[in-house]
Amino acid sequence: MITNQARSVLKNGMVLMRWIAVVSSSVAAIISTMLPLYGVIDGGQWSALFLLLLFSAFLIHGVLTHLLNDYTDHLSGTDARSPAILSGGSRLIQTGAVPAETIGRVGKGLAAGLALLAAALLVTGFVRLGVLLAVGVWAAVSYSLRPLRTSYYPVAGEWISTFPSLFFLGLAGPWLALETVPEWAFQNALVNALICIAWVMVHHIPDLRADARAVPKKQTSVVWAAERFGLVFSRLPAVIYYVLAGACAFWLGLERLPAALGLAVSTAAAIFLIMKMDVEDPEEVSSVEKWLLLLAMSTAVWLGIFV
């Protein structure tokens, strides 16, 4: 029988994980490069690898990243001022469900434990697993903790932390299963990472005033664009990343024409939604973000089918 304490831990864990975001980014990236491997490698190996990557994604992107991010954003004060529709962290600290000190302590402890595991894997010869785990831990720690805390600087959060983590997660399946990573794996991993960063930029729009008032200031790319060019340009970072993702259709070219066409349509639809949304209405922005999450998942699966 589950005790009240265990039930509370499970409930808080589910809230912390924000599984919808993890599924539409990390799980989508995994599926996109695991689908083409189905039937290419042994079925048991495929299932074991898929479950390993799934567990790793939820542990690192769902638990570790959100623990550290919730803790840092609580200290700076941005989560307390967020409109908190799809943003503003898990709200576990703000609602008093879990003390901030506990969130921080558990997050740092988990990061240290996973870093030690990554080192052990590297030393014992499991180099690829060790590298993948190290990249995931690096991304979570560098994104939220000092001295880097890249999420508080424009562009840095995307390219120093978020992109490497999502790109390597997309490559993980083929890299672990095959001797040589095929070109389609690099293509799918790149596209899915760029699309994820793009909708994260939309995710930051409702928080831009709270982020600008944080101490220290959380100057995301969205905050930078809004302060530099005006509030209406807060959508600019998202549009740029979707354009970059859409431009990859030329790389896919005639060799993967259905995939290229699907990618072009998906990114064009995303840009259309972003351009017509009211950036001053948090509810409308969150509604658009839900559509972007669906597009991200659909695009990942489409790319996984047409290789």
TrEMBL record:
Keywords: Membrane, Transferase, Transmembrane, Transmembrane helix. InterPro entries: UBIAD1. It comes from the Bacteria. The chain crosses the membrane at residues 20-41, 48-68, 114-141, 153-177, 189-208, 229-252, 258-275, 287-305. The keyword Cytoplasm does not apply. GO terms for molecular function: prenyltransferase activity. GO terms for biological process: menaquinone biosynthetic process; vitamin K biosynthetic process. PANTHER family: 1,4-DIHYDROXY-2-NAPHTHOATE OCTAPRENYLTRANSFERASE (PTHR13929), UBIA PRENYLTRANSFERASE DOMAIN-CONTAINING PROTEIN 1 (PTHR13929:SF0). This is 1,4-dihydroxy-2-naphthoate octaprenyltransferase. It comes from Salibacterium qingdaonense.
